[in-house]
Specification:
about 290 residues, alpha/beta, Rossmann fold, N-(1-d-carboxylethyl)-l-norvaline Dehydrogenase, domain 2, six-stranded parallel β-sheet, three-stranded mixed β-sheet
Length: about 290
């Protein structure tokens, strides 16, 4: 049984565990959160006590982490991967990370003969667990023969984007659209509520019209029922992504006025203590919770 390293066993990490184990891989995992580590151990993951421990056991390691700062710590910090990975090891970063930092990791690790690949995913943890994720790979397909089988365990489609950092840039472009779709749906339902309309009927009308977006299927009813306590993607995580979108836009001198407004709205939601809820909780800004 081939060993696969996994650092980060939260929402997406749990989905990876399910798919890797179903494909008969042995998962060697680490998470600083003991609750996540214990849950992984219960389903058969061999849990290590540090990134270094994972590096000593695995030549192929997936990262599924909350943000770029933690990626940096896992790679370059004490007991980090850079110090303990063997030559010709591969690190695949599925975190939604800062593209410029990704390029820097790649350049530094290349000097140590460690391959670093950005492969963020489009899709919630639930979609990934159901093999409905989309992989955005900063690599060329010809160089990916060794890890394509693993991507196929959770991806319905894989896009090879050619260069390091392109995966993470593309993910931010995608997340810009997804986040704005969600906030637009929330605003429209808020207006319908003020007009005294049947919101479930309005949702069906939106789904049946040219206004349709997939968020109406995946999160529409969750929004109307205000059932946010079992997140598949947290509001605070998307707020972090919008911050990265604004940073990338500033670097490229791109106009993103809607994302700037979106950033303000998400900060308002976090200030109201909704950051740990599912990201569909943005509707609370337009229809206050009961």
């Amino acid at each position: 049984m081939k060993k696969i390293g996994l650092i980060g066993m939260g929402l997406v990490g749990k989905a990876f565990i399910k798919r890797f184990m179903a494909a008969n891989y042995q998962v060697i995992g680490y998470d600083i959160n003991q609750e996540a580590a214990n849950a992984a151990r219960k389903v058969g993951v061999v849990v290590g006590n540090s990134p270094a421990n994972i590096a000593k056991q695995c030549e192929l390691i997936f990262l599924s982490l909350p943000n770029s700062n933690i990626v940096n710590q896992v790679i370059w910090g004490e007991n980090g991967l850079a110090e303990f990975c063997s030559h010709n090891s591969t690190i695949i970063d599925t975190t939604t990370s800062d593209p410029q930092e990704t390029i820097q990791h790649y350049q530094r690790l290349k000097l140590q003969k460690i391959r670093f690949i950005d492969c963020p995913l489009v899709g919630s943890s639930q979609e990934i667990s159901e093999v409905k994720g989309i992989s955005l790979v900063g690599d060329i397909e010809a160089k990916a023969v060794d890890y394509i089988p693993l991507l196929k365990t959770f991806s319905k489609k894989i896009f090879f984007l050619g260069e390091i950092g392109q995966g993470h840039q593309t993910k931010l472009v995608v997340n810009l659209v997804l986040g704005l779709n969600r906030i637009v749906l929330s605003e429209s339902l808020g207006l319908a509520k003020k007009c005294g309309m049947d919101l479930f009927q309005i949702l069906e009308i939106l789904k049946s019209s040219a206004a349709y977006s997939e968020v109406m299927d995946t999160q529409g009813e969750i929004m109307l029922k205000q059932s946010f306590e079992n997140p598949v993607a947290r509001l605070a995580q998307h707020a972090k992504d919008v911050g990265l979108i604004l940073k990338l836009a500033a670097e490229k001198e791109a106009r993103v006025p809607l994302s700037e407004l979106h950033d303000c709205l998400l900060k308002e939601a976090i200030k109201s203590n909704w950051g740990a809820l599912d990201n569909s909780a943005v509707i609370n800004l337009f229809i206050p919770p009961n």
